[in-house]
């Protein structure tokens, strides 16, 4: 594996992600922001943040599999959530956990979560983009 995830001493352990990723592979992969669309472009989980987070992560897994990778190769996630408030964290983490169960691992690379006013379609509650490094 080309990625080592680290929580440096002197920084808090967040639990939902690691503070640092060290990538040693040779192929850098950028995945466009994924929304809760299925393969036919139909929104999954309309109005359900956990379901949409799960679908976004599964879409990232699908994109990575296409280029010979997996979530284990992700070095950074950026998550955009419409009308974010801290009370939504449990729904966000539920979606991540459901996706992790289907992906066969726990996706905990460094990440940034940003609250936004809206995304490109009013039924989308979350968008997730990823950067990965493959051997």
Describe this protein's structure.
- The chain has 135 residues and is α+β, with helices and mostly antiparallel strands.
- It has helices spanning 49-66, 89-103; strands at 3-6, 20-23, 27-34, 74-82, 111-116, 126-134.
- Helix 2 links the parallel strand 4 (74-82) and strand 5 (111-116).
- The termini are close together.
Entry keywords:
24% helix, YjgF/YER057c/UK114, 135 residues, 6 strands, alpha+beta, RutC-like_sf, two-stranded antiparallel sheet, 2 helices, 4-stranded mixed sheet, deaminase activity, RidA family protein
Concise account of the structure shown:
One of its GO terms (cellular component) is cytosol. With about 140 residues, the protein is of the alpha+beta class. About 25% of the residues lie in helices and about 30% in strands.
Which descriptor suits the 3D outline?
A: globular
Radius of gyration: 14 Å
Count of alpha/pi helices? 2
Beta-strand percent range: 25-35%
Strands across the major sheet, in which order? 3-6-4-5
Average per-residue pLDDT, rounded, comes to 92
Instruction: Give the fraction of residues assigned to helices.
Output: 10-25%
Question: For the report, how would you describe the main beta sheet?
Answer: 4 strands, mixed
SSE order in H/E notation?
A: EEEHEHEE
Quick one: how many beta strands?
A: 6
**C-alpha end-to-end distance:** 7 Å
Judged by helices, strands and strand pairing, the structural class is: alpha+beta
Q: Would you identify the regions where 5 or more consecutive residues have pLDDT less than 50? A: none
């Amino acid at each position: 594996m080309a990625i080592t995830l680290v929580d440096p001493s002197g920084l808090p352990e967040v639990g939902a992600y690691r503070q640092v990723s060290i990538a040693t592979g040779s192929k850098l992969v950028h995945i466009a922001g994924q929304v809760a669309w299925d393969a036919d472009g139909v929104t999954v989980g309309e109005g359900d943040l956990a379901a949409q987070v799960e679908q976004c992560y599964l879409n990232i897994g699908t994109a990575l599999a296409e280029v010979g990778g997996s979530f284990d190769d992700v070095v950074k996630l950026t998550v955009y959530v419409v009308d974010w408030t801290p009370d939504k964290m449990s729904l966000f983490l539920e979606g991540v956990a459901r996706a992790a169960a289907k992906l066969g691992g726990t996706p905990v690379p460094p990440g940034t979560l940003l609250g936004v006013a809206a995304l490109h379609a009013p039924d989308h509650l979350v968008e997730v983009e990823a950067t990965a490094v493959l051997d």
